[in-house]
Amino acid sequence: MSSLAGQWNYFLVIALMMIGFYAVIARGNMVKKMVGLTIFQTSVFMLYISMGKVSNGTAPILTGDPQTLYANPLPHVLILTAIVVGVATTAVGYALIIRVYESYGTIEDDELIKMIEAEDAEDSEDMNGETQSA
Amino acid sequence: MSGFLVNASLISLLTLIAILALRLHRLFAVVMLSGAFSLVAATLFVVLDAVDVAFTEAAVGAGISSILALATLSLVPAEEKPHSIAFVPAFLALATALMLAVAVTDLPAFGDVNAPIHNHVAPEFIKGSAEDIGIPNVVTSVLASYRGYDTLGETVVIFTAAIAVLLVLGGYTRPHRRKIKSRKKGEDKNAG
Amino acid sequence: MQDDPVIRVVSKVMIPTVMLFALYVQFHGDYGPGGGFQAGVIFASAFVLNAMIFGLNRGRHVWPANLNLLAICAGVLLYGLTGIASLFLGANYLDYDVLGATAKSGQHIGILLVEFGVGLTVASVMVALFFTFAGRLTHIRLMSKMQAHEEASPPASKTKTKAKKAGGRS
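YS: structure for the whole thing
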């Protein structure tokens, strides 16, 4: 039980992570999905940064005093690059959403599935007609 | 204990923002809330001694990311279709949370100095940053020197993402205007 | 927004300040929090602010798209070439020890070059993303104008595209 109390930060972050996860899988609106993904992503960052934290430590910028405890710089490096890469990939997601809207006129995925199914049915009818006429 | 109070209150604030963002249907508000989320997350990173990460999160998450989302909303409808609570995804999220919580109990305690992560290569980097490289900011020396390959890879990912966006939206391809037009007409009929 | 004098004056003061701050973050990254990634984003935000206040066209005039594309590639190339330079000087790829007179000064030069490459790429990528997203609206308007023009012309082109589509599908 003492170990459980020591990990409170991780539990809080997991709760946050699951809100993002729910938004990604439950919401049909694509922009909402992207926002959920951002929340999920940021929570994962928090989990990593929490692991690098050292009690009574300080930021990993050398002070010159050999007694100083520093936080672990490795997760910081990993997450720093991940944030910038994250925004670049999010931009690709938004770009695809814009194109989906331009082609289908909706960004709700249930409507989108209906449209694509209807289009497929139409296409197969067209192809049947063509083969018969040929 | 004060660390617990600060972290817990910040994460509760984040949870509040996340739930609000989940519940609202006006996407402009959702996007602004996600910007606020990033800003509070940056504060949390400062509390967790990750100043470089906090800096990046504040500049990227609250700045550029919100601007891109707003630019998207100027092109797509800014209103979400109302939804009821979906039970299967909620159950899935709860189950995943449970599994993660069980897995997390195996991790070393939060802030433990003797955790394996702090006794592997990190002390070498902190020592080497002063002796080999002569740069006080350990994050920069690890980023650019010790882990130069990683950063090169990340830069190439950013480059690739930009090329992808330019190809999708940059006007190098012609959108299928005919299709959209017929659909838009149908939509107008539904609305009217 | 272009007509509001308060916004115009304040942004004219803000834009150079933001750029200067970005340069500080870029080159002070060795000693304090900062580095190429953050500096790139901050530098790009100055261009974004400029385009938001004074319009997309003026923003494009300040920093043309072709130059921007070149800058995206130049940043990645600078990073890669720094590694190749150390390769030619007899060390491993991206091992900066050989770039300067001593190992420490070599590391300083290497990190400075690499961070500058990262900053250049990130800044120009963010500017490119903003201009692409914001320019999409004018692009669509242009395309629909062209569409209307095409529809006004004889309907021969319409049957042509239809035939093309059927051919492509089967």
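YS: worth flagging: Residues 1-81 of chain B form one domain.
IM: good catch. Also Residues 51-73 of chain B form the longest helix (23 residues).
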